[in-house]
């Protein structure tokens, strides 16, 4: 009896099983929209994701609906994954610690749902980055003919694909390759500050965090690795000089008092993160006049740091109030009205205000191996380059370039 029932159930539901395993059905209009997106992607450095375009077009021309559905689904899934994760520069993603807040949904399921709801355009439009820098770089890539610059543009387009699609209504973006921090509000650039970043031997990592407040006149909690470079010896052998510089040893740790020589300067942003990297002021203001500003142990030193603090704190924090708080000499904290996302990234190319592109020195050698698809849409074999200890002097001859 059980066997008969099983056979009957199989006969009843077999058509639905076969339908579930079949390819999604594409209309003529949906196929045309997919081909449109595939052609557009080729001009954005995603040529490896659209290698199936000739076969798809042939199936359409021959009226082979089954073959069309099969190729269209495979092409849409491949293109969707390319918009999400990039194409030929996966090796450059090493140590990139910025990601979508939640995993992307299954690509095949996303395509099937978009087809069923006839929202294929919405699927690709919301998946590709919407930041204005991405669009400007993609236009530059489509027009560029120099192979080296195309590779750099392709690498930076992929880096934008590795950024979250929703960065926030208001956020800070630090481009360590450009030695700049920028404030964005409602999709528009609202301010820009020069920064000093990590030396090539202690590069500033790529990560994201949230800024919740500002500490004025901060103490510097000196990391053991930095204390071992000389501060610990100074405290032990010349306590008077160490005291003059503000260094103290308490409970086995080394600290520096607030003051004009404090390594954090007059303010530090509260932005907890596992790298212990922060945005802060510095007494070494002369470094902001240099073109290549890679001198820190990894933290990001900000030019006009008090101006940035007042801007982030918002209404009620004009420069007079900030100066009064700093002038008191006391350590004080102020909370931001709302947590502010901050992204410490690395882009060696970005658009300028004149319609051109600025190319920056690849100080951390993170562009080595950048690639574009070849004429057959294949990505070159990539390997992660070996690290080499270099110093900012290696880049004294280099300057940010605009074309």
Automatic annotation (TrEMBL):
CDD domains registered for this protein in UniProt: YkuD_like (cd16913)
Domain of life: Bacteria
GO molecular function: carboxypeptidase activity; transferase activity
Pfam families: Scaffold, YkuD
Biological classification of the source: Bacteria, Pseudomonadati, Pseudomonadota, Alphaproteobacteria, Sphingomonadales
Active site (record annotation): 280, 299
One GO process term, biological-process aspect: regulation of cell shape
Record bears the keyword Metal-binding: no
Protein name according to UniProt: L,D-TPase catalytic domain-containing protein
Protein family: Belongs to the YkuD family.
Keywords on record: Cell shape, Cell wall biogenesis/degradation, Peptidoglycan synthesis, Signal, Transferase
Organism: Sphingobium indicum F2
Region forming the signal peptide: 1-20
Keyword Transferase included in the entry's annotation: yes
Domain L,D-TPase catalytic residue range list: 170-325
Pathway: Cell wall biogenesis; peptidoglycan biosynthesis
